[in-house]
Amino acid sequence: MELTYTKVGDYYIPDLTLDNDTECEIGVYGRMRERFLEEHHHGTYTSLLLTGKLWKHLAEIDAACHERMDFLIPAMAKQEGVTEALKASSQMEWVGRMNNIRNRAEEIILHELVYA
Cα dihedral sign for 39, 43, 45, 46? Predict the structure, then answer.
């Protein structure tokens, strides 16, 4: 591996760049995972960053969280009897119960995937 340098004043600065494919789309759960790693597992965060695997890891965590949410919410709603019939008869109760289910499902995935 050969490094190139750029002269700035009296100093030579190495021309370092990251691969262009290291940037991935990440959402809220990926950002939460990044902040968690940076604050609580700095060695792991630095290692992933330096090896170019951080963005891929964050994208995988984000996708896993969304998949788990898509599975948990309908399963919990079915188990608790929150149906379309309830939505038609009592919208406010349905909204309250669905919000409760969504919040509990999010706490589960945060505990299992983001903060693990």
Answer: positive
